[in-house]
Amino acid sequence: MFSQLSHSVRQYMIVTFNYWNFTITDGALRMLVVLYFHDLGYSTLAIASLFLFYEFFGVVTNLIGGWLGARLGLNKTMNVGLGMQVFALLMLAVPTVWLTIPWVMAAQALSGIAKDLNKMSAKSAIKTLVPSDQEGALYKWIAILTGSKNALKGAGFFLGGVLLSTIGFKAAVIAMAVVLFVVLIGSLAFLDGDMGKAKSKPKFTQLFSKSSEINILSAARLFLFGARDVWFVIALPIYLGTTFGWDHSWVGGFLALWVIGYGFVQGFAPKITGKAEGKVPDGRAAMWWAGLLTLVTGLIAYGVQIGWQAQYVIVIGLLIFGAVFAINSSLHSYLIVSYAKGDGVSMDVGFYYMANAMGRLIGTILSGLVFQIAGLAACLWVSFGFLLLATVISIKLPKR
């Protein structure tokens, strides 16, 4: 049956299969690290520091990775990402006494590079597989890939907890490394060798030579994801455990369900934003949805600040936030691939996801700092400010 499909569909299925397997292990690894190092007695902020290199190297990788993808081909950057993740997992399969903070940060740095190489390659590859005159199909496939990624990352959170409680940390990372190595072998065998390679070799100096719409969208993306991570990464898990008294399984379960629901909404974003009427969204849609998310966040922040039914405000409010944020994220993911040039698409996509990674890095740092100084309400007000900036920046996006 697989051989009867068109070449483009087969390539899309291989790319998606690679991306799905990587995403599950990425989510599982994050939960494994958080829970295992908490059991070892690490403080919450010390655990958070383990992920700083993961985010920092995402900034660098998206920028340089896009250039490499355009010069070498997206199959190579995707396969390098798979191989690096295998190595990062094996770095953690060492005796417990070796698992110092510098060692784990180095492993997480490799994992961050691998993750963004894989994501950039997968999303850029779709541009090369969908005909240029089928914008509606492009939006649909981007939404499916993005939505499935987040749903599977949430499933990975569950998987990480299950593996830790059943076979232990070391066996879990070895098992995931074996699975990814098998995926890598299949990718090397079946993925096209010239996918996404630019016809002319782009110069390194062209990395920052972007069109105005890509620069504007990248700036909006930075504040959009900074607004999410400023409360989600550190502040919210600590708040749920200390203020509501939830245990680790409740906290992990809530966050996993949030991410799965977020991914589910992303997959349906084209139906919500107009594709059902034969339309595809433009910059105007991105501006209005960012404005709606700003309003939702302001209401949540105000409710938390005055202490009104805090548990309902946070749980229900953040579920609404997740749904609206998912539509914003899916819109952005479509717009960047639509705006990107067909020749050397990975350079434009890589530049854009560099801004995404920078937003996550800033959000992660502020999440720990602002929460420690002023609490969750302050984190949400910072999120509100970031989203207001994203809305204002989006006004400049093309209205077409």
Tell me briefly what this model is.
The chain has 400 residues and is mainly alpha-helical.
Question: How many beta-strand runs?
Answer: 0
> How is the biggest beta sheet arranged?
none
Number of helices: 15
Oligomeric category: single chain
Helix fraction by DSSP (H/I, runs of at least 4): over 70%
Find the structural class using helix and strand composition: mainly alpha
Mean pLDDT: 80
> What is the string of SSEs from the N terminus onward?
HHHHHHHHHHHHHHH
Distance separating the two termini: 40 Å
Label the overall shape. Answer: globular
Low-confidence stretches: none
Strand content: under 5%
The Cα radius of gyration reads 20 Å
Description:
- By secondary structure, the chain is mostly helical.
- The chain contains 15 helices and no strands.
- It has helices at 7-39, 44-49, 52-72, 74-91, 101-129, 135-166, 169-190, 212-232, 235-242, 248-267, 269-272, 283-306, 310-339, 345-374, 376-394.
- The chain is globular and about 60 Å long.
- The chain starts with 6 loop residues before the first helix and ends in a 6-residue tail after the last helix.
- The model has no long low-confidence stretch (mean pLDDT 80).
Features:
400 residues; mainly alpha; 0% strand
Question: Secondary-structure map with pairings?
Answer:
Layout (H helix, E strand, L loop, with lengths): L6 H33 L4 H6 L2 H21 L1 H18 L9 H29 L5 H32 L2 H22 L21 H21 L2 H8 L5 H20 L1 H4 L10 H24 L3 H30 L5 H30 L1 H19 L6
